[in-house]
Design the sequence.
């Protein structure tokens, strides 16, 4: 078998005890978030702000969207519906009118970058940037930019700080131990940087003897899942790979011979993971429930690798354009970076100089994650066998005075216990008889007499699909253990 099966069984089992109608994709599933197609540089409200071929995206610890605004040579931040410049500047333009890049450390407002492609944040809130055309990794901390690893010379060398060398580093990710993983594109390697700034090269071993999956061809992005497994966008090989315990498996993409330029020919086809076709994918986003989104750049599409080891085209249609609206109507032009937060997928539509937002539909079977995947690490022996249980972030909720209740064929859950387990803030207004939930920038108010709400023993209960849809979390039903599993 030429690809890695994380789960042996993928199920579309619906949550029958949590009956809710499937909602179809709406007319505005894909919308502009920042920029609308005209390249330029302008801070301000999102409807007026301008970007210039943005590339990588990530969310900071406060829920703000960070953007590697590549051809503006700046790091931008979207917060409270406004775009601002977090770091970087440019004083002159090149012959094509693009801001000239350079390498200069110092205060963030006066630092220089050169075609940065990606960025990631560690647990302390420091931002690391793959400053691609400078061949270095930069660090933004306390308003100051420094060169963390590498120097302004392409090469391949391990070592500490400026002694190390990179060659067009692109994708970057940070693991739970604050180690930095870098897709060192033109070195065809994955590099690791520890907290002290020491760079090493990740040693990879193919999972198959018949095909060498460990050989990379201009890797462009990396990502980590909740278990610490590494995902690699192997762009020149037209493959998405997964590293588990040091072994490299094929997650999706077809094998092929290299052409005279040294690349496997790109293609565009859905279906089984090991025969699906990609065309120089550049970005990846891995969700906790096993869904893997891919920015299939030269196919101008967003692809979805599902836990049943199939690939579907999620948005776009293989043709470059700039259209928002429904998923089937949407068109992109060289999408490159992806990030997920609170029920929406964000896409850097590079050649359209915009960030687009895609709302995910939680009632659609395409998003029912594999039960065996999200059930991993949950100790079901601790469940209450008399009720429908709920697990959040891999742990069962220990309900106190109010538990789940079945009314009229639907199950209702204590809103405070579930929302707070997800990290939301919950308050009750007795005068207005409303419950207010604040979660990742969303502010939601539920009247107690609203559809989907019940009051039992003076406690507010809610239908799980209502809460999940509003907060942007996924619902999976483990029938064997009578448990609802919520994942972001």
Sequence:
């Amino acid at each position: 078998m030429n690809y890695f099966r994380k789960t042996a069984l993928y199920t579309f089992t619906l949550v029958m005890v949590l009956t809710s109608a499937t909602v179809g994709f709406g007319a505005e599933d894909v919308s502009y978030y920042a920029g609308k197609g005209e390249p330029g540089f302008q801070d301000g409200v999102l409807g007026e702000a301008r970007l210039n071929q943005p590339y990588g995206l990530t969310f900071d610890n406060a829920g703000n969207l960070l953007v590697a605004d590549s051809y503006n040579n700046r790091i931008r931040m979207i917060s409270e519906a406004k775009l601002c410049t977090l770091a970087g500047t440019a004083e002159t333009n090149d012959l094509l009118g693009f801001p000239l890049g350079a390498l200069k450390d110092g205060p963030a407002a006066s630092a220089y970058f050169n075609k940065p492609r990606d960025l990631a944040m560690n647990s302390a809130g420091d931002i690391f940037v793959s400053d691609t055309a400078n061949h270095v990794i930069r660090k933004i901390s306390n308003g100051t930019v420094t060169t963390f690893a590498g120097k302004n010379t392409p090469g391949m060398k391990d070592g500490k700080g400026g002694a190390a060398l990179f060659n067009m580093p692109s994708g970057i990710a940070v693991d739970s131990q604050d180690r930095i993983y870098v897709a060192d594109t033109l070195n065809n390697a994955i590099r690791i940087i520890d907290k002290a700034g020491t760079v090493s090269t990740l040693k990879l071993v193919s999972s198959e003897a018949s095909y060498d999956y460990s050989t990379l061809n201009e890797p462009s992005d990396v990502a980590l899942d909740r278990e610490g497994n590494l995902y690699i966008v192997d762009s020149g090989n037209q493959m998405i790979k997964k590293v588990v315990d040091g072994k490299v498996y094929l997650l999706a993409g077809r094998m092929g011979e290299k052409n005279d330029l040294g690349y496997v020919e790109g293609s565009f086809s859905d279906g089984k993971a090991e025969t699906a076709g990609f065309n120089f994918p550049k970005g990846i986003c891995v969700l906790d429930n096993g869904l893997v989104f891919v920015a299939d750049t030269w196919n101008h599409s967003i692809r979805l690798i599902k836990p049943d080891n199939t690939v579907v085209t999620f948005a776009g249609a293989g043709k470059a354009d700039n259209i928002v609206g429904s998923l089937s109507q949407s068109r992109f032009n060289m999408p490159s970076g992806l990030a997920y937060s609170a029920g929406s997928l964000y896409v850097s539509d590079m050649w359209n100089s915009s960030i687009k937002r895609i709302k995910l539909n939680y009632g659609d079977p395409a998003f029912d994650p594999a039960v065996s995947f999200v059930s991993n690490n949950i100790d079901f022996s601790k469940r209450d066998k008399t009720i429908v249980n709920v697990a959040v972030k891999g742990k069962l909720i220990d309900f106190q005075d109010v538990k789940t209740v079945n009314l009229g064929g639907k199950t209702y859950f204590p809103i405070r216990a579930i929302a707070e387990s997800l990290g939301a803030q919950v308050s009750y207004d007795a005068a207005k008889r409303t419950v207010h939930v604040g979660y990742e920038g969303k502010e939601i108010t539920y009247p107690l007499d609203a559809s989907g709400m019940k009051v039992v023993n003076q406690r507010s209960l809610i239908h799980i699909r209502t809460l999940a849809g509003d907060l942007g979390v996924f619902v999976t039903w483990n029938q064997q253990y009578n448990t609802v599993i919520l994942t972001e």
